[in-house]
């Protein structure tokens, strides 16, 4: 179940989604660039690589235009090879990040983006069952609950589906750090009685950090997640009142992404105010 399945105030969800888009994947960008330097992609694979390389710097900048350019490039490539699973995955990933940014005040537009993201990720998983694809669908459905304005029946239906998708992601990628990053972010906003809470979120974020140490994605496989892992670990520690641990996690974020505005100007100062 994604973070929006926890029944958080929609306005708060929107603000957090806007901030989360700043939780960029700087280390992931370096990994993607390193892969590109050692791999030769042709045909649809070349376009999929180009799309993923557009998403990462757009995340770094919080750049809506850049994310839309990534989506548009994927759509152009898919007009030639409409069933390419890697292209579908990266279009869905770009849409997920774009929708998260739009949640900062344009929920209706975000809803349409998330609905499309769910469709293309589902199509991707049909022939290329990457763990990240299932985890992203889980997160997309969680966001859809918030973008749709909630509602008990919708929340229950999408929440159950989101949870099942995350279970499948963990089954496929038990040591995949990106799966555990998305799992941690969802758990942080769910009550403990339904598998959430800061203790579970902390454990999942710690697993994400642990598995990053041996994360060696090859070819077109996703490579983001380092900044996100430390960000959510810090959030979980902060929610649990572990200020020193939260500060250490946030410092790791700044080591990887020195200009991370949310951590630098909001999350760290918030810790200072709790002294």
Give an account of the 3D structure.
The protein is mainly alpha-helical and 275 residues long. It has a single domain, classed as Serine Threonine Protein Phosphatase 5, Tetratricopeptide repeat, CATH 1.25.40.10. It is built from 13 helices and no strands. The protein has helices at residues 10-20, 26-38, 43-61, 64-78, 85-102, 107-127, 131-147, 152-172, 177-187, 198-212, 226-239, 243-256, 261-273. The radius of gyration is 17 Å and the shape is globular. It starts with 9 loop residues before the first helix and ends with a helix.
Set down the secondary structure blueprint.
Blueprint: H1 10-20, H2 26-38, H3 43-61, H4 64-78, H5 85-102, H6 107-127, H7 131-147, H8 152-172, H9 177-187, H10 198-212, H11 226-239, H12 243-256, H13 261-273
Please give a handful of descriptors for the protein shown.
single chain; 275 residues; mainly alpha; Serine Threonine Protein Phosphatase 5, Tetratricopeptide repeat; 13 helices; globular; disordered N terminus
Q: What can be said about the biggest beta sheet?
A: none
CATH class: Mainly Alpha
Apparent shape: globular
Q: How many helices?
A: 13
Distance between the termini: 33 Å
Number of strands: 0
């Amino acid at each position: 179940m994604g973070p929006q399945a926890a029944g958080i105030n929609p306005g708060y969800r929107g603000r957090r989604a806007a901030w989360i888009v700043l939780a960029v994947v700087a280390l992931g960008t370096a990994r993607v660039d390193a892969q590109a330097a050692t791999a030769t992609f042709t045909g649809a694979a070349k376009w999929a690589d180009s799309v993923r390389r557009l998403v990462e710097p757009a995340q770094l900048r919080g750049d809506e235009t850049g994310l839309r350019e990534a989506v548009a490039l994927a759509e152009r490539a898919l007009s030639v090879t409409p069933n390419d699973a890697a292209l579908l995955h990266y279009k869905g990933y770009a849409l997920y990040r774009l929708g998260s940014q739009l949640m900062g005040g344009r929920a209706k537009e975000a809803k349409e983006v998330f609905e499309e993201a769910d469709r293309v990720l589902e199509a991707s998983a049909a022939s290329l069952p990457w763990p990240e694809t299932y985890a992203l669908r889980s997160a997309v459905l969680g966001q859809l609950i918030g973008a749709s304005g909630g509602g008990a029946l919708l929340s229950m239906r999408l929440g159950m589906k989101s949870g099942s998708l995350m279970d499948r992601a963990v089954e496929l990628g038990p040591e995949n750090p990106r799966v555990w990053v998305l799992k941690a972010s969802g758990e942080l906003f769910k009550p403990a009685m339904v598998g959430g809470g800061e203790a579970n979120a902390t454990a999942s974020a710690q697993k994400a950090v642990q598995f990053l140490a041996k994360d060696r994605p090859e070819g077109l496989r996703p490579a983001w997640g380092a900044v996100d892992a430390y960000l959510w670990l810090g959030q979980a520690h902060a929610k649990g009142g572990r200020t020193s641990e939260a500060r250490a996690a946030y410092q790791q974020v700044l080591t990887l992404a020195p200009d991370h505005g949310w951590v630098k100007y909001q999350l760290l100062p918030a810790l200072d105010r709790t002294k």
